[in-house]
Amino acid sequence: MNKFTTKIAAALSFGLVAAGAQADEIRIPVNSWTGQNLSAHIAGQLLEKLDHEVEYVTAGAVPQLAAMAQGTLHFQPEFWDNNVGDIYPDALAVGDIVIVGPLGLQSREGWIYPPYMEEQCPGLPAYEALYDCAQAFAAADTFPNGRLITYPADWGTRSRDLVAALDLPFQPVAGGSEGAMIAELRSAVAAQQPMLMMFWEPHWLFAEFDFNWIEWDAPENGVCDESNQTRGDACGFAQANVGKLVNRDFAETWPDAYALAEAFTMDNASQNEMILQVDQQGMSVEDAAAGWIAENEEIWTPWIEAARAAQD
Q1: Percentage with pLDDT > 90 across the chain
Q2: In what order do the strands lie in the sheet with 75-80?
Q3: What is the distance between the alpha carbons of residues 172 and 106, in angstroms, rounded to a whole number?
Q4: ABC-type glycine betaine transport system substrate-binding domain: which residues (predicted)?
Q5: CB 278 within 8 A of CB 286
Q6: What pLDDT is attached to residue 75?
Q7: How many angstroms separate the CA atoms of 6 and 138, rounded?
Q8: Are residues 129 and 180 in the same domain?
Q9: Measured between alpha carbons, how far is 298 from 302 in angstroms, rounded to an integer?
Q10: CA distance 1 to 3
């Protein structure tokens, strides 16, 4: 942990409000993945330029919402709205949590493959090509069916369910872990071997390698219902929205910080590169965030100016 190690993380884990937490500190939750950590530290370092004291609080994706509703946490700069439980819509409805706006990240989940597979399966990236060239993705233990690497078993069965619903000639094989999945991708690309895998973005992988995505039918009303899909009407996977949240009193308590929160954005390419620096090159989250700030002054300077104007 860094010098901003939380004084209330343990309390949060039991759903308690921390005693002795200072009212003038802006407390930012830190979740369990690198991309969110980077957004948190970039936002925090920019808030420090406005002379705010910032505290980073380790908090789970669902428990953080109760803490924000209670006012124990204040500003979440990168919030993914999938798998968040019941408290989120309830807290929004009564105004305990406020959506500031989209962060700018374009989240994506789905099946990826190396571009060289399009020579062996010319109908790609359309998912219906998979019916005709499953054998191009086959392995010795799945032939004549194609081999699809899915998320680890404890991450759910979404890919397996979709294969069954669409009667695709593929055999889903659960990845052992994120690390094991990445190792298999690396090996396949190095040997130009068949590969189809469930994955997500933003991720450092896309800063180092080129992958294409299987494309699906357009979802009805722009929202993919994963539970009811058939061939010819298959939207694939629902995509999360990535936004920024504050607690009820944030704008009134820190109008300049709220203006910064409104202006703050992040794009996939920038975050992918920083995740690569942290996860693969050994850089700390703090240093990667500071590096982004040092290299992108023209981007964040208007944010600081807008924040200072709101303070006047």
Answers
A1: 79
A2: 75-80, 242-247, 97-102
A3: 26
A4: 25-295
A5: no
A6: 98
A7: 49
A8: yes
A9: 7
A10: 7
Q: Same domain for 214 and 252?
A: no
Model confidence band, residue 24 (pLDDT cutoffs 50, 70, 90): confident
Tokens linked to 84: 């968040």
Predicted TM-score (pTM) of the model is 0.77
Query: 112: which residues sit within 8 A by CB, 6+ positions away?
Result: 196, 197, 198, 199, 211, 212, 213, 214
Contacts of 196 (CB under 8 A, 6+ apart): 111, 112, 113, 117, 130, 137, 146, 147, 148, 149, 170, 214
Integer Rg of the chain from CA: 22
Question: Per the domain annotation, does 236 fall within a domain?
Answer: no
pLDDT digits (tens, 9 = 90+) for 92-140: 999 999 999 999 999 999 999 999 999 999 999 999 999 999 999 999 9
Phi and psi of 6, rounded to 5°? -65, 150
Phi and psi for 204 in degrees, rounded to 5? -60, -25
Query: pLDDT of 161-175, one tens digit each?
Result: 999 999 999 999 999
Contact 147, 194 (CB under 8 A): yes
| Domain coverage including residue 286 | 9-105+241-311
Helix axes 34-49, 285-295, angle to 10 degrees: 60
**Domain finish residue from 155, 190, 222:** 222
Would you say residue 270 lies in a domain?
Answer: yes
